[in-house]
Specification:
Low-confidence stretches: 1-18, 203-219
Largest sheet: 14 strands, antiparallel
Strand content: over 45%
Number of domains: 1
Distance between the termini: 96 Å
Oligomer: single chain
Order of helices and strands: HEEEEEEEEEEEEEEH
Number of helices: 2
Length: 225
C-alpha cells in the first residue's frame, strides 16, 4: 500500500512538472516557458511589426511591497524561465531587448524611498549562461509623492537559433518616511523584442541565380555588338 502511495505521489509530481511548461508558436518563432510563475502566468500577447517581433506578460498586482512607518519592506519575485527558438523557414537576430514598466510607486514623508532591480542569466544557442544585462530600473517622478519605474536593457546579439533566460527575478524595496510602496498593475508589461527574417527557399535562390545569369548574358551580347 505504501509503494502505491509513493508511486501515485511520483506521478502527481511529474504531472505538475510537465504542466509547468508550455510552448507558444508565434509563426516565425516559438517560446517555451513556465506558465505557472506567480504574478506572470501565461504570455498575454505577441506582436509583429515588420521584421520586429516579440511577446509580453501582464504583471499581476500581487507583485508589490509596502512599508509603513519607515521599516524596510523588500520582496523578490521570480520572472518566467523561457527559451526562444526559430521556427523552420526563419532566422532570428538581435539585439534582444527586454523591457519592464510602468511600475508605480508612492513615497510619503521625509526619507521615503523605493527601488526596483532585476537580475538573471541568459544563454545563446545552448551556450554557457552569462549574467543578463539588467540592473536597477530608472525612476520617473510625476509628483513629489508619486511616480513609476520603467526601463529596458539590450543584449547585443547577431543571428541566433535559440535564446534562453533563466533564474531571473525582480526585487522591489520600500522604506523610510511614513509610507512607501511600489507595485504592479494589470496594464504593466514585461516584454521581449527581437528580429525575425524569412529564409528564401532553394527555388528562390535558383531563380535569383538564373536571373543574374540572364542579365550577364544580355550584357555580354550588348558589348559584342
Amino acid at each position: 500500500m505504501k509503494l502505491k502511495s509513493i508511486a501515485a505521489a511520483v506521478v502527481l509530481t511529474m504531472s505538475a512538472l510537465a504542466g509547468a511548461s508550455t510552448t507558444l508558436n508565434a509563426g516565425s518563432y516559438s517560446v517555451t516557458y513556465n506558465e505557472t510563475t506567480p504574478g506572470f502566468g501565461w504570455i498575454t500577447s505577441w506582436f509583429s511589426n515588420g521584421g520586429s517581433v516579440g511577446f509580453e506578460w501582464s504583471i499581476d498586482p500581487s507583485v508589490n511591497v509596502t512599508s509603513v512607518g519607515g521599516a524596510l519592506a523588500s520582496a523578490t519575485f521570480a520572472l518566467p524561465d523561457f527559451t526562444i527558438t526559430a521556427n523552420p523557414g526563419y532566422t532570428l537576430s538581435g539585439p534582444v531587448t527586454g523591457s519592464l514598466g510602468n511600475i508605480v510607486y508612492f513615497q510619503n514623508g521625509a526619507g521615503a524611498t523605493t527601488s526596483l532591480s532585476a537580475t538573471g542569466v541568459v544563454s545563446v544557442n545552448g551556450g554557457p549562461a552569462t549574467p543578463a544585462p539588467w540592473g536597477g530600473l530608472p525612476q520617473t517622478t510625476v509628483t513629489p509623492t508619486f511616480g513609476y519605474f520603467s526601463g529596458s536593457s539590450t543584449a547585443p546579439l547577431g543571428a541566433f537559433t535559440s535564446f534562453s533566460v533563466s533564474a531571473a527575478s525582480i526585487t522591489l524595496s520600500a522604506s523610510g518616511g511614513s509610507f512607501a510602496s511600489i507595485g504592479a498593475q494589470p496594464q504593466n508589461k514585461l516584454k521581449f523584442e527581437f528580429t525575425a527574417t524569412p529564409v528564401p527557399e532553394p527555388e528562390t535562390y535558383a531563380l535569383m541565380l538564373a536571373g543574374l545569369g540572364l542579365m550577364g548574358y544580355i550584357g555580354r551580347r550588348r558589348q559584342g555588338r
